[in-house]
Amino acid sequence: MALTLAGLAAERPLGLRVLTGDDLLNRPIGWVHPTELTDPQAFLEGGELLLTTGLALDEGTAPAYVRRLVAAGVAGLGFGVGLSHEHVPRALVTTAAEVGLPVLEVPRKTPFIAITRAVSRAVAADEYATTVRIGRAQQELTRTAVGKGGPAGVLRKLAKLIDGWVLLFDRTTVTEAAPASARAYGVSLREELERLRTGTRAFSLDGQEVALQTLDTSARRVLAVGTAEPLDTAGRHIVNTAVSVLSLALEQDRAQAAARQALRTGLVELLAGGQAELALRVLIASGGEPPEAPWSVLVFLGPPAARRKLLGAMEGESFAARSGSSVVAFGPASVVEPAAEAALRIGGLHGGVAGPVAPGDFATGLQQAELAARAAEAEGKILVSAAEHTGRGLLSLIDPVVAQAFAGGLLAPLRRHDETGRGDLVESLRCWLEHHGHWDTAAARLGVHRHTLRNRITKAQELLGRDLDSPGVRAELWVALQT
Fold this sequence. Notes:
It is a single chain. The chain is an alpha/beta fold. The chain is built from 17 helices and 15 strands. Strands 1-5-4-3-2 form a five-stranded mixed β-sheet. A five-stranded antiparallel β-sheet has the order 7-6-10-9-8. The relative contact order is 0.05.
């Protein structure tokens, strides 16, 4: 901690006496500058303790001199007595008290060099303490990053080192917080995060000093640091170190996650290719543990962003991997419910589940789950089981998109005719096929004369260009009418 005016005045061998500014003695002393110039502003940076014997000062010039020192931002004035002046000029003391400039009386026996040495020792000690603090913090952060703590551990360590709070964002979403209560600041920082592109941004929030720092060039990851007071030199160095180790740790995590996903995708491909034994050996050799068989197999369809979130949500809960444009997961039956809950929470996902199946039958389970997932997507459901899907008959085996396109093309002539209001050909054909071509029964159900129905079916046959006496044609039309 820097030496303050109070600390300097407390050094009894110097014999300093405080004349003004008792309530301002907490000011740190940046350096000491002795001068007899009446206007030393050009040679000052601010924060100095100025020493003078008042050689060129008197009661008339002292007030303006004091105001010039205040304008220059000096920390205080040390006035040596017993040489040019027996006492500090009264006008100087009065003006200093008015404008808020601490004045220390330096006795004749105390040379200015003694004050300079005292401040120099304190500055050197402060710089050494800062260096030690930075070094120790760098070691602690590095050990945490390469150890088991990972990014979350680095955040907790950083929060303690700066006596503040720390948040890690992925875009505007808080992914880690230290302490946990700091998550409450996430919403308040969203507007500032949206303004940040790359680099740093500093501002005040609820009386606290906050700094945002991007961790990569894409600005996806952002570190937010909040403290009650502005960070000192050591604090800024510590935060910079944390930014460096976090960037490395996150990049390492990203690379490891990509490798894990690639491995899992390869294992799914082996299982789907009927090589279950090889897939399980590779999983064990890579440090993984195969889920307990038999397995429930899940397939989820949805937008890429939703699929990425689902993979993250299922991490550690079950074996999950990317497979083409879907997410495939498998494990004991207990994995189905949490997977469905995660998909519902994320939104935009539709899944199918099959099983239980033995590892050797994974390919069959995967196909069934894929068909059920397409059915769930077509029906807007979160999850459809293969058993439920296959229980619907032949139509369940047809891709819903393909089926709709087929039906739309096949029935288009009839629908265009019906739009003219000259007959209800689509509904008449549906009812006639439903009653296996029985004219009287179908006509009665439609509430029309059987001759009217015959005319409609004849017209439908002409428009379709198909022979309605053919069983194959009737089957195609029936499928199209059910879609």
